[in-house]
C-alpha cells in the first residue's frame, strides 16, 4: 500500500502543481467578499476528491490537496467500529461504498436509525482489525470511475490527520445512534484531544452541546448541520425548518451552520432557479457562518447554469447580494477555481493570449442554434468568432442552419413530414431538406434547440427556450456581424439542385462590404480554392475524422488550400472509456508547418468530458489551450471559454496561489491496477495527403435540363469519403460541409 501511495503522489504531482505559498497571492488585486469575516469562502472537500476516487481514500485526499486552493479543508464523515475505532465514510452502512458484502455475504443486519428501518452492513458490527485488514473502498456513485474499486484502503481518522491537511473537518452524523449502541463519538474525539481538528459539525444539537466546552478550549469551531426541512432533529424532535426560524438560539452552541444548497437558491419543478431565500443574510445577522453543501460536477442541477459547475458556485458567492462562507464539494478543484479565478470577473476584462473562442451555431448550448438569440448571446458572452453554417432554400436564398435536414433543428417534423425525402448522398435516413422548401415555408417553422444528450441520457438543454429565436438569412447574419464588429452542402447542391452555394456566399460577402477578418471553413479543398483569390479570407480545412499526426507531405498539401485546420477533440487527445490515454502530434506538426489549429466541438455537459478533466469543461479548455496550444476552440458554450481566458489563472507563467492546470493524458488511468485499466485503443492514423485533395466542384446544374432527361450526374468521390459502410453517411455530410466563420 505504501508503495502504491508514493507512486500515486508522484503521478499526481507530475500534472498538478503543488499549492503556491500565500505570499504569492499579492500578485492579484484583493477581492471584497460578502462573507461573515470578509475573507474568501472556504473550500471543503467532502471525503477528499470523492468525485473521482472512492471517498476519503488516501488517493482522494492527496489529489484534493494537490489540485485545490492552499487553504483547503478536508472533511471526514466519522463512523465507529465495534471496538470504538474511527474511520471516514459518509454512510453508516458500508455495503454501497466498500467490498464488505464480498467478505461477509451473510453479514446484513437491520437497525432503526432515526426512525427509519435500514438494512445493510453496519460498521458497529465489525472490529477495526476486520475492517482495516479485509475491506477496501469502492466508488458509490455509478456515473463516476469504477476502475479504482477494491484497490484503496478505508482511512482511519488518525491516518488522515497524520497527513497534516491544511485544515481538518470532522462530521459526526450519527451520535444518537452510536450512543444507543454504547459507542460514543464524543469520547472518541476526546481521545484524540481535538488535535488537528479545526471544525466539528453535526445535525444533532445534543452532541454539539456535549463537546462545547472541550471544543472551545481547543479552539475548534462547532457547526450545526441542517437536514431536510421536514426531518426531525434528534435532540429536540423539532423539524429543521422550525429550528431555522431561530438562528440566534444556534449561536449559543455553534459558530456556524451547514445548509443544503437548495435552502439558499431553491429550484422549481422545471429546474430553474427561484429567487434566493434570506438564509445567508439571516445567518450573518445572527453572527453565524453559513456553508452550502451538495456541490458536484456530475449531476443535472439548474438549467440556469448551462451545465457549467463553476457558474453554480459563482451564483452563491458573486451575486452582488450575499456570499456563503464556504462550499462542501465532491470536486474541490472546481470550487477553488470559481473562488480564486472567476469570482468578481468583469465582463470587459480582456482575454489573455491569442486563442480564439469560436462558436458552433452561436451559443447553441443556450438557444436554438443559428438563431438571432444564439448569435446575440454569443456576442454578449465575448466570443471572438461567430459562425454561420450556410444552407440554401428552394428559391435560392442562403441562410444559417446547422444542417440541410430541418428535422433536428426545427419543428418541421410536426408539420411537414409529408415533405420528407431520401437523399443518400447526404444521409442514410429520410429528411426534410431546406433545398426542397422555399424561404417562406422555412419561416413558418420554429427553431428547435439541439440537445445531444437528451435521447440516451435525459439531459435536455434550456427547455424554456427550446423554440426561441428567429432564423437568419446569410445577408442578415453578415449585417449583424458588421454591426457587432464582431455547414452546408456545396458539392451536392451545385450538382443536384442547381443552387450555387459558393456563389451565394461570395455574393453575400461582397454585398456586405465587411471590413473585418473573415474565415471560410470547409472540408472540401475545392470549396476553399474558390476563395483563394481573396487574401483577407482565412481558409479553414475541416478534418472530420480522427487523426494522430500530419506528415510533411500532408502539411504541404494542406498549405495549398488552407491557412488553418479544424480537428476533432479526439484527434488531439485519445480517449478510452472516458479516460484520456494519450496525446497526439497533430498540433505540433501543424504548427511546424505554420498552420493554425482549432479544436471542436466543446460542450459543457459532463457526459462529454473525460474523467481526467474532473467532469469540468474549464479543465478541458485548459488542456486544449494551455496543454496542447491550440489557436482556437469551437464551442457551443462561449461564456465558459471566455471566462477561462479572461482569468489570470489561465496564464501558467504567473505566480499565483492557484492555477487551472491542463490534464496530462494517461496519468489518471495509470493509477488503477493493470487489470482494471481499459484496453489500449489503436493509435489514430496519420492524415494522408490524398485525404486533403478533392476534385473540382461541378458546375451549377440547369434544373430544366436535368428534369427533362430524368437524371443527374453521379457524385464524385471526395476527400471526406471513408471506405466503410458504417461511416458512409457521416463522411458524406462532412464531405459536403461549408461553414462560414466571422471574426467578431
TrEMBL record:
InterPro entries: GP_PDE_dom, PLC-like_Pdiesterase_TIM-brl. CDD domains: GDPD_SHV3_repeat_1, GDPD_SHV3_repeat_2. The keyword Chaperone does not apply. GO terms for molecular function: glycerophosphodiester phosphodiesterase activity. Its EC number is 3.1.4.46. The chain crosses the membrane at residues 722-742. Residues 41-339, 355-645 form the GP-PDE domain. SUPFAM superfamilies: PLC-like phosphodiesterases. It is an enzyme of class 3 (hydrolase). It comes from the Eukaryota. The keyword Membrane applies. Residues 1-17 form the signal peptide. Keywords: Glycerol metabolism, Glycoprotein, Hydrolase, Membrane, Signal, Transmembrane, Transmembrane helix. It catalyses: a sn-glycero-3-phosphodiester + H2O = an alcohol + sn-glycerol 3-phosphate + H(+). GO terms for biological process: glycerol metabolic process; lipid metabolic process. PANTHER family: GLYCEROPHOSPHODIESTER PHOSPHODIESTERASE (PTHR43620:SF28), GLYCEROPHOSPHORYL DIESTER PHOSPHODIESTERASE (PTHR43620). This is glycerophosphodiester phosphodiesterase.
Amino acid at each position: 500500500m505504501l508503495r502504491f501511495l508514493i507512486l500515486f503522489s508522484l503521478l499526481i504531482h507530475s500534472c498538478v502543481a503543488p499549492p503556491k505559498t500565500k505570499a504569492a497571492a499579492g500578485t492579484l488585486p484583493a477581492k471584497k467578499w460578502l462573507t461573515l469575516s470578509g475573507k474568501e469562502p472556504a473550500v471543503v472537500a467532502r471525503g477528499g476528491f470523492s468525485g473521482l476516487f472512492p471517498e476519503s481514500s488516501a488517493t482522494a485526499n492527496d489529489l484534493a490537496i494537490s489540485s485545490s486552493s492552499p487553504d483547503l479543508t478536508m472533511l471526514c464523515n466519522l463512523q465507529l467500529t465495534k471496538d470504538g475505532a474511527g474511520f471516514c465514510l459518509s454512510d453508516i452502512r458500508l455495503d454501497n461504498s466498500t467490498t464488505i458484502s464480498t467478505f461477509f455475504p451473510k453479514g446484513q443486519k437491520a437497525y432503526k436509525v432515526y426512525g427509519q428501518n435500514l438494512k445493510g452492513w453496519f460498521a458497529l458490527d465489525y472490529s477495526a482489525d476486520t475492517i482495516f485488514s479485509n475491506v477496501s473502498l469502492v466508488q458509490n456513485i455509478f456515473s463516476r470511475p469504477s476502475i479504482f474499486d477494491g484497490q484503496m484502503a478505508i482511512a482511519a481518522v488518525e491516518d488522515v490527520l497524520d497527513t497534516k491537511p491544511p485544515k481538518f473537518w470532522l462530521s459526526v452524523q450519527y451520535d444518537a445512534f452510536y450512543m444507543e449502541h454504547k459507542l460514543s463519538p464524543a469520547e472518541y474525539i476526546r481521545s484524540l484531544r481535538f488535535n488537528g481538528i479545526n471544525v466539528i459539525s453535526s445535525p444533532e444539537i445534543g452532541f454539539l452541546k456535549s463537546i462545547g466546552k472541550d471544543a472551545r478550549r481547543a479552539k475548534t469551531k462547532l457547526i450545526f448541520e441542517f437536514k431536510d426541512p421536514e426531518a426531525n432533529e434528534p435532540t429536540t424532535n423539532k423539524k429543521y425548518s422550525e429550528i431555522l426560524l431561530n438562528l440566534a438560539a444556534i449561536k449559543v452552541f455553534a459558530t456556524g451552520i451547514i445548509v443544503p444548497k437548495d435552502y439558499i437558491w431553491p429550484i422549481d419543478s422545471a429546474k430553474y432557479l427561484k429567487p434566493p431565500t434570506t438564509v445567508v443574510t439571516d445567518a450573518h445577522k445572527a453572527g453565524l457562518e453559513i456553508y452550502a453543501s451538495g456541490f458536484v460536477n456530475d449531476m443535472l442541477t439548474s438549467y440556469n447554469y448551462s451545465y457549467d459547475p463553476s457558474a453554480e458556485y459563482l451564483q452563491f458567492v458573486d451575486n452582488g447580494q450575499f456570499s456563503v462562507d464556504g462550499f462542501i464539494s465532491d470536486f474541490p478543484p472546481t470550487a477553488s477555481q470559481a473562488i480564486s479565478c472567476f469570482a468578481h470577473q468583469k465582463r470587459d476584462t480582456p482575454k489573455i493570449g491569442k486563442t480564439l473562442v469560436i462558436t458552433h451555431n452561436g451559443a447553441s448550448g443556450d438557444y436554438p442554434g443559428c438563431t438571432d438569440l444564439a448569435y446575440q448571446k454569443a456576442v454578449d458572452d465575448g466570443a471572438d468568432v461567430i459562425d454561420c453554417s450556410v444552407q440554401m432554400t428552394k428559391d435560392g436564398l442562403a441562410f444559417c442552419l446547422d444542417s440541410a435536414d430541418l428535422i433536428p433543428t426545427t419543428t418541421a417534423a410536426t408539420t411537414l413530414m409529408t415533405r420528407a425525402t431520401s437523399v443518400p448522398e447526404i444521409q442514410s435516413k429520410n429528411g426534410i431538406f431546406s433545398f426542397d422548401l422555399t424561404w417562406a415555408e422555412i419561416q413558418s417553422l420554429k427553431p428547435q434547440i439541439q440537445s445531444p444528450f437528451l435521447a440516451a441520457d435525459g439531459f435536455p438543454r434550456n427547455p424554456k427556450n427550446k423554440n426561441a429565436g428567429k432564423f437568419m438569412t446569410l445577408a442578415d447574419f453578415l449585417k449583424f456581424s458588421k454591426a457587432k464588429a464582431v455547414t452546408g452542402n456545396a458539392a451536392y447542391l451545385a450538382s443536384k439542385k442547381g443552387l450555387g452555394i459558393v456563389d451565394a456566399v461570395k455574393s453575400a460577402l461582397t454585398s456586405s462590404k465587411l471590413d473585418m477578418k473573415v474565415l471560410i471553413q470547409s472540408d472540401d479543398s475545392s470549396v476553399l480554392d474558390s476563395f483563394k483569390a481573396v487574401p483577407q479570407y482565412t481558409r479553414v480545412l475541416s478534418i472530420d475524422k480522427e487523426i494522430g499526426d500530419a506528415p510533411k507531405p500532408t502539411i504541404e498539401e494542406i498549405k495549398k488550400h488552407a491557412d488553418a485546420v479544424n480537428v476533432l477533440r479526439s484527434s488531439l487527445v485519445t480517449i478510452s472509456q472516458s479516460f484520456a490515454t494519450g496525446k497526439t502530434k497533430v498540433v505540433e506538426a501543424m504548427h511546424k508547418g505554420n498552420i493554425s489549429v482549432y479544436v471542436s466541438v466543446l460542450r459543457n455537459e459532463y457526459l462529454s468530458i473525460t474523467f481526467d478533466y474532473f467532469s469540468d469543461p474549464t479543465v478541458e479548455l485548459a488542456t486544449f489551450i494551455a496543454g496542447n496550444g491550440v489557436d482556437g476552440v469551437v464551442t457551443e458554450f462561449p461564456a465558459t471559454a471566455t471566462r477561462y481566458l479572461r482569468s489570470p489563472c489561465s496564464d501558467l507563467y504567473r505566480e499565483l496561489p492557484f492555477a487551472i492546470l491542463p490534464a496530462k493524458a494517461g496519468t489518471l488511468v495509470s493509477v488503477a491496477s493493470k487489470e482494471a485499466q481499459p484496453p489500449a485503443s489503436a493509435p489514430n492514423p496519420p492524415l494522408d495527403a490524398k485525404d486533403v485533395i478533392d476534385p473540382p466542384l461541378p458546375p451549377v446544374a440547369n434544373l430544366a435540363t436535368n428534369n427533362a432527361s430524368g437524371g443527374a450526374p453521379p457524385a464524385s468521390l471526395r476527400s471526406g469519403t471513408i471506405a466503410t459502410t458504417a461511416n458512409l453517411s457521416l463522411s458524406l455530410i462532412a464531405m459536403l460541409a461549408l461553414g462560414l466563420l466571422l471574426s467578431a
